[in-house]
From TrEMBL:
<dbReference type="InterPro" id="IPR012334">
    <property type="entry name" value="Pectin_lyas_fold"/>
</dbReference>
<protein>
    <submittedName>
        <fullName>Parallel beta helix pectate lyase-like protein</fullName>
    </submittedName>
</protein>
<dbReference type="InterPro" id="IPR011050">
    <property type="entry name" value="Pectin_lyase_fold/virulence"/>
</dbReference>
<keyword id="KW-0732">Signal</keyword>
<dbReference type="GO" id="GO:0016829">
    <property type="term" value="F:lyase activity"/>
</dbReference>
<dbReference type="InterPro" id="IPR006626">
    <property type="entry name" value="PbH1"/>
</dbReference>
<feature type="signal peptide">
    <location>
        <begin position="1"/>
        <end position="23"/>
    </location>
</feature>
<keyword id="KW-0456">Lyase</keyword>
Length: 685
């Protein structure tokens, strides 16, 4: 396993860039700096804009007295010698350099960071650095840019990581990189107790890495199935700002048949990431571009299993102002972590197909996927845990939805609340959750995408699936605006527009599964085919106070089915909804409702004609039913035992058609059993 060295004494060759000397000078100079061609030394300038003086020094350091301050404004060539500096010496950079030798420091010595370079060895006591900000020049540090061999790319990796930890040991907390475009080899044999961080570029604790748009850190193309470019491993108080991290997605060797040292293989190659945060605490990732990861753009996890006493969690992490582009698997994934804030990011084309690589499941922009299972005794074992996640003000999209219909999306596979998803913009994609609790999806704007609430196999499950809310969202799509399955969701005050407004119970492998303990109320729906559809089993489901507008040509306003098998009521209630449409000649113009449920209470609704296709134990009361011209008010296509119609107001329009129209009609050859009609008001117009 690679050792991460944090020396108290330096014996490293520090291949340094120019360093900023003063905080107040740094920002403007970095923005305006141009690195000159090496063939024109007269144009070379220092990191603070100071012109580099290439004139040899006319003095030496071997006779410096204690408590001295030495101005270095010339080139001091040590000629391979070791200079022993006395205590309390200060070396100040003013455009010069110290090269080709060793400085052995005594106590309380100070040096300007700009003076460190690849040919200067520093030994003895750690000196103090004049400024805690360090500006990195790849040329002075020995980084080889451009396309390189594996050997050179590995050297680049070792150089950069060693510099991070070495300058940190000198008290430098701000590490800046401007122009750099280099490849880094970060793959190698891993065993049972080693992970991708072994070969990645690791960052130390209490460290700030600041990069620019001209900083390109690229993964050397490889055939490994688990590797990471940049890692924050068991570290605290780390900030990474700016820069572009490139995965090797289009250059990766997917046919390498790589077998790791522990015998494991990974034919899908989906665990190759551009950044991993593993056991990181108090972390900020700000303004970074993550692109073309072979696996995930950014992966957040813990160290050791969640239930393990050794577990080191990832927590208090801010992910903001970043761009996540074209990860082959998922742009941003959390497998274990808490108190994570994901804000103002752009996430695009997660899991899309590209020229040399197809997307791989789950093919998403964001995904939570902690591993957990039940023991043989029914106890939940949490190998990983995701909780307290806040996702707000982000923009996610899929550029070409037709070519990549399964790509993109915010997918919450498992999680424990609060998980808040709010004020996000979603284009050609949407958001979904499955086995989770405490999920709040609110105030999002979704275009050509949808919301997926729950999973049908979680029907009736109250241990880990409950307390989810969806409200104040706007969804406009050519598909289904929202699908509702599983247990424990309240959906209110949303605007849904689609071919289908809301679909309940889809995805069940058995008809006994579907939707339970769910409220759908106070929503506005505009639909082309049907506003509400229910299939499989409904239990304790309330659909109330919704306003539905059906677009021209819609065949049905609702198709309602419930496979409830018990004799007691399922408590499936459709109540006080208003259904409107474009059928001419009627007040509301609503298309018919197709109903065949095993137990339902249909009460106080304003709807079009009702067509019964089966079911049993249904109650229709106090509804205003208005048939379209040429249609019967209520039509039984099949028997519906133990069904009651009571106190409904049924309007038909027999004068507008030559057809024989009835308030209530039973189809030919259908015999009703135990169906009762009480106090119906039939109005003919």
């Amino acid at each position: 396993m690679k050792m991460i060295i944090r020396p108290m004494y330096l014996a490293l060759f520090l291949t340094l860039t120019f360093l900023s000397c003063n905080n107040e000078e740094l920002s403007e100079e970095l923005l305006s700096e141009v690195i000159a061609d090496e063939s024109t030394p007269e144009d070379v300038s220092g990191t603070n804009g100071t012109e580099l003086n290439t004139t040899p020094c006319d003095f030496k350091l071997d006779n410096v007295q204690a408590n001295s301050t030495v101005i270095i404004n010339c080139v001091m060539d040590l000629g391979g010698q070791t200079i022993n500096l006395p205590a309390n010496v200060t070396l100040i950079y003013e455009g010069g350099d110290i090269i080709n030798g060793t400085l052995d420091f005594s106590s309380n010595t100070t040096i300007s960071g700009e003076l460190m370079n690849s040919s200067l060895t520093m030994t003895g006591s750690n000196p103090q650095v004049k400024d805690p900000t360090f500006t990195f020049d790849p040329k002075r540090w020995g980084i080889v840019e451009g396309i390189v061999s594996d050997q050179i790319a590995l050297s680049n990796t070792n150089i950069l990581e060693k510099i991070f930890f070495s300058v940190k040991s000198l008290g430098i907390t701000q590490f800046k990189i401007d122009t750099m475009d280099a490849y880094f080899k970060v793959d190698g044999p891993l065993g049972a107790i080693t992970g991708p961080e072994t070969y990645a570029i690791n960052l130390p604790s209490d460290f700030n890495l600041s990069m620019s748009n001209n900083t390109h850190i690229r993964m050397q193309p490889n055939g490994h199935f688990r590797a990471a470019l940049l890692c924050i491993y068991d570290a605290k108080n780390v900030t990474v700002k700016g820069g572009v991290l490139h995965g090797d997605r289009e250059k990766h060797n997917y046919n390498s048949n790589y077998t790791d040292s522990d015998g494991s293989t990974g034919k899908t190659h989906e665990w190759v990431d551009t950044m991993r945060i593993k056991g990181g605490q108090n972390i900020v990732i700000d303004g970074v571009v993550f692109q073309d990861a072979t696996g995930d753009g950014l992966n957040i996890s813990g160290i050791y299993h969640y239930y393990d006493s050794r577990h080191i969690k990832s927590s208090n992490i801010i992910i903001k102002n970043n761009k996540f582009l074209r990860a082959r698997r998922t742009n941003l994934v959390i497998t274990s972590g808490e108190q994570i804030f994901i804000e103002n990011n752009e996430l695009a084309d997660g899991g899309i197909d590209m020229t040399n690589s197809k997307g791989i499941a789950p093919s998403s922009n964001l995904n939570f996927e902690p591993v957990r299972a039940f023991s043989s005794t029914g106890t939940l074992i949490e190998y990983e845990r995701v909780s307290n996640i806040y996702i707000k003000n982000n923009k996610q999209m899929v550029t070409d939805k037709d070519a990549n219909p399964r790509a993109g999306g915010f997918q919450i596979s498992h999680g424990d609340g609060p998980i808040i998803i709010e004020n996000n913009e979603m284009i050609n994609t949407g958001v979904s959750f499955y086995t989770a609790n405490g999920v709040i999806i609110r105030n999002n704007n979704i275009v050509q995408g949808g919301i997926g609430a729950g999973a049908a196999e979680n029907f009736g499950r109250t241990d880990t699936v409950y307390g989810n809310e969806i409200y104040n969202n706007t969804v406009v799509t050519e598909g289904t605006a929202i699908t509702v399955s599983g247990n424990g969701t309240t959906i209110r005050d949303n605007y849904f527009e689609g071919v289908v407004g809301a679909s309940f119970g889809a995805g069940a492998t058995e008809i006994t599964m579907g939707v339970s303990n769910t409220i759908f109320k106070d929503n506005s729906i505009k639909a082309k085919n049907r506003a509400i559809s229910t299939i499989n089993t409904m239990k304790n489901v309330l659909i109330e106070n919704n306003v539905i507008d059906m677009l021209s040509g819609a065949p049905f306003v609702m198709t309602l089915y419930n496979e409830w098998s018990e004799t007691v009521s399922s408590n499936f209630i459709i109540k006080n909804n208003i259904f409107k449409g474009t059928k001419s000649g009627t007040e509301r113009g609503a298309p018919p409702a197709l109903i065949g449920t095993n137990t339902i209470t249909f009460e106080g609704n304003k709807t079009g004609e009702i067509q019964i296709t089966g079911g049993r134990n249904m109650i229709f009361s106090n509804n205003e039913i208005e048939a379209a011209i040429g249609q019967n008010g209520v039509l039984f296509y099949a028997d519906a035992p133990n069904t009651k119609f009571q106190s409904n107001k049924i309007t038909t329009y027999p004068s507008q058609t030559p057809l024989k129209i009835n308030c209530i009609k039973v189809a030919t050859n259908i015999q009703l059993s135990s169906v009762s009609f009480e106090n119906q008001e039939c109005i003919e117009k």
